[in-house]
Each structure stands twice: as C-alpha cells, then as structure tokens.
Specification:
The protein has about 220 residues and is α/β, with parallel strands linked by helices. About 45% of the residues lie in helices and about 10% in strands. The protein contains 10 helices and 6 strands. It is globular.
Length: about 220
C-alpha cells in the first residue's frame, strides 16, 4: 500500500464553478427558478446530478429533468474554453511525481465533462485515473468514489490526501479516511474548517501546503 493524492476536478484542479453557475442559471430561468450564487454554492455545487433531480428539479418529471441536465452539461462544455489550471497546480503535481506519489481524479462530474476539462487543461497524461461518482455504487458525499480511487492506485487512506472544494466532497474524503485539503474557491476557510478539512488553502502556491503534504504523505 502506498500514499496517493486524489483530486476533485471543478473548483480544485480548475476554477470553473462560475461557468457551472452560468449554465445552471440559464437553464433554470425558463422554469421560474432564479438561482442565486449563494443557492448554487450551498445547494448545487458538488452535488451529483442524481440528487439534483430529486431536489433542485423536483418540479419536473424525470425525463424532462434529465434532458435539462444534459443540456446544462453541454452548455458548460461550450463555455469551458481557454481556462487555465489552478494556480500552482502544475508545480505541485511535479513535486508529487518527483516523490513517487500516484495521483487520480475523483469527481461527481459526468465523464464527458471530466474528459473535456482534462483535455482543455492539458492534464490528460497527468491523470490516467478518473473516477466518476455515477460509475460507482454511490457518488459523493458517500466515500465510494474515493474508496474506488484508493483501490485502483493501491493507496493507503491514512497516509493519502484528498483535495476538495465542496461540502459533499469534503464529507466523502473524510468518510473514506483521507486527510482533506480544501481549496477556498467556493467556500471560506472558516466554513471549510467547520466541515472538517485538515488544511484550507486558496491555491497550490500556499506555503503551508508542501510541509503539510510531506508530513501526511509520509515524505517528511
């Protein structure tokens, strides 16, 4: 068993939550739903589409709800152009690679979105493992996606890291037994600490990250 690093995608590898919000707001407006940024961050961000069908879209029948979600995801992919990886991410991935730490993506995003984003960020080769929440027994906030990532990489949870930006992702990482680093792209540091993250940082250039990661990954 080895130490591994598992990364959520949206808001963690790339700050694209504003594009998701724009797509959701556009799609929901014709249905009389005025989605605010606050509602997006508390009720939508990080949630699997299967859960959103039962909450955000409960006024629609399942077929119409699925069609709206598919249209929203297609709109997001159209909006996702000329987007850069999170600040400091590439250098941090280089550091993990030099220290022999395998990495993977663990996300509730649909596979089409995840692959589109990784191609756009030129990160496909960096992340040969992509675990999709809808493709395991239960998506985040359940631990199943992270447990699948650990299994694929032969990782030991107690010396591995999860990188997250949402409540559901933090809950999933903690439930899987990993130390969780929170990216404050959609939540405040105080809110993340209240949710149980072990470290909250604005980006991968934060000077606290490397010492923390080295200790938790058993590299120190």
């Amino acid at each position: 068993m080895k130490s591994v690093a598992l990364f959520d995608l949206d808001g963690t590898l790339v700050n694209a939550d504003h594009l998701h919000y724009e797509a959701w707001k556009h799609m929901l407006s014709p249905h009389g739903i005025d989605l605010t940024e606050e509602s997006y961050r508390t009720d939508v961000m990080g949630s699997p589409n299967s859960l959103l069908l039962k909450s955000l879209l409960k006024g629609l029948d399942e077929k119409a709800g699925l069609a709206l979600i598919n249209d929203k995801e297609a709109m997001f992919r159209r909006l996702f152009v000329k987007v850069e990886p999170a600040t400091g991410l590439t250098a941090f991935l280089d550091w993990l690679g030099k220290n022999g730490v395998p990495v993977g993506v663990v996300t509730n995003a649909p596979r089409a979105n995840a692959e589109h984003q990784l191609r756009g960020l030129d990160l496909v080769k960096r992340f040969p493992l992509v675990v999709i929440g809808a493709e395991v027994a239960r998506p985040k906030p359940f631990p199943d996606p992270y447990l699948a990532g650990l299994e694929h990489l032969e990782g030991r949870a107690t010396t591995s890291l999860a990188f997250e930006d949402s409540r559901s992702g933090i809950a999933a990482g903690k439930a899987a037994g990993l130390s969780v680093v929170g990216l404050t792209t959609g939540m405040s540091e105080a809110a993340m600490l209240a949710e149980g993250v072990d470290l909250a940082i604005p980006d991968y250039e934060d000077p606290r990250l490397l010492p923390f990661a080295a200790q938790r990954l058993g590299l120190a």
